[in-house]
Amino acid sequence: MNITGTIDRPLTHDPKKQAPMKPLTHEPAGFAPEDLTTRGANDSRQNRTREMQLIPEALARAHMHDRLQEAEQERRAMRLVTARRMQRRAERASLRARRALAIAVMQ
């Protein structure tokens, strides 16, 4: 029983025991079919459309827009906190002035 190997499953993995590859007579040495080398690679590269190439840029732009909105909300919140703090301070100053006036009138 003589079983020959295939390219995917060679009979032996030892290169010295494998049959040598014979070049085809009608093709020059070092020749590879055109469709196996560049055509397939070019087609796969051309599948990337302009929109696909711009997806990371659009994603970055959306991310920056979100970050700017968050920063603006944070600034508004800080201004509100500061305004409330100053309002309480002004109310305390008003109460102190009213007390001082009342004490001055009583004397």
Q: What would your notes on this structure say?
A:
- The chain has 107 residues and is mainly alpha-helical.
- It has two helices and no strands.
- The longest helix has 57 residues.
- It is rod-shaped and about 125 Å long.
- It starts with 33 loop residues before the first helix and ends with a helix.
Number of helices: 2
Mean pLDDT: 79
Q: How many beta strands in the DSSP annotation?
A: 0
Instruction: Spell out the helices and strands N to C.
Output: HH
- How helix-rich are the residues, as a percent range? 55-70%
Can you summarize the main beta sheet?
Answer: none
Q: What fraction of the residues are assigned to beta strands by DSSP?
A: under 5%
Key descriptive features of the protein:
107 residues, mainly alpha
Compose a concise summary of this entry:
It is built from 2 helices and no strands.
Q: Which helices and strands, and how do they pair?
A:
Elements: H1 34-46, H2 50-106
